[in-house]
Fold GDP-mannose 4,6-dehydratase.
Amino acid sequence: MSRRALITGITGQDGSYLAEYLLSQGYQVWGLIRGQANPRKSRVSRLVADLSFVDGDLMDQGSLVSAVDKVQPDEVYNLGAISFVPMSWQQAELVTEVNGMGVLRVLEAIRMVSGLNSSQRVDVGKQIRFYQASSSEMFGKVAETPQKETTSFHPRSPYGVAKAYGHFITKNYRESFGMYAVSGMLFNHESPRRGSEFVTRKITLAVAKIKLGLQEKLELGNLDAVRDWGFAGDYVRAMHLMLQQDEPGDYVVGTGEMHSVRDAVRIAFDHVGLDWRDHVVINPALVRPAEVEILCADTTRVKAALGWEPEVDFPELMRMMVDSDLEQALREHEYADLLHAANW
Ligand code: NDP
Ligand code: GDR
């Protein structure tokens, strides 16, 4: 019988790539869907065929117990979160509830459905395995560069603090109940499916529109911020590999390469033959109250222990996103022309 995976955050960037990958590996894949008539459900259904859905919300313990009980998964990937860092200063309590307490609720659902407690352990081979989407934002004001599994945390946003709670509670359930529970400490990863609020996609969408004469300027915040950016399609393979090991453990996942926001802008504008300095405007309102200046992964462990390697490099990734946004902008533009011609 094929293995079953339950993914929270199925409508997000990583949810769709992970579902595609697991389906290609012969899994039955279930996505947790929140809300009434969630508009993003049809989008992910179009992107990924053969998905099944189960209702639930990371804010609601009972719904998670029901979902785990219904799906009876072999593996649970907790990707659900409010993932845009600036929102965490505006809605700190909600972000803490979803990104922090939400992790505890999924762990509790697995514990309850599997009948695990501190005196009753379940053989590792028969356990529901749990993956937590931890983040490089936990390193925050970095103690060392590059950052590795043992680097201390100094999160700089309510988002990072909530992710640190999720990280430690995952480790605690592993130690307390012998649960197969791991955290992937993933550095920024992007794709044509990235939300338009994140800086790479904001840049590539703007470049496409500027190239087509539909927009003139692009407002950005801190151009000096440095990140280790990779391709989401590569990173979901690492998530899966983490759950296939004999022993559960936490891993840093990144490319080990650093680029500034300015580099990202330059590569994207260069790709369409434009000079970024003619279009980029700094808006101080977009600078964060407490910035994470630099992040870069030490990939030694993930490469040695999991044999994982990224396949897409950063310039290639930015160009892939620009090309995809150019196609999308053209389609929208043509559609608008058609409506105009039809006097709609
Ligand atoms: P997205 O923002 O694209 O997706 C977030 C997902 O979380 C959406 O499917 C959303 O569903 C879901 N969600 C939000 N609130 C709830 C809730 N209350 N209950 C259930 N689901 C909810 O994020 P990514 O795909 O980029 O990231 C996946 C995970 O990895 C996140 O946890 C993120 O914090 C983490 N991460 C991401 C990195 C990156 O660079 N992309 C790096 C490191 C960590 P809905 O349609 O209902 O809104
Ligand atoms: P980040 O990603 O906060 O690292 O979190 P984001 O793309 O939002 O910001 C990256 C860096 O770019 C700087 N920046 C801007 N950012 C945005 N969004 N918009 C701008 O206009 C802008 N100008 C400059 C930011 O200040 C920042 O330094 C992402 C999310 O996916 C998290 O969920 C995940 O945990 C981390 O990556 C790892």
In short: Residues 8-15, 32, 34-35, 38, 40, 57-59, 79-83, 98, 133, 135, 186, 188-189, 195 surround NDP (ligand 1) (CB under 6 Å). The chain is about 45% helix and 15% strand. The chain has two domains: 4-190+230-253, 199-226+259-294+313-337.
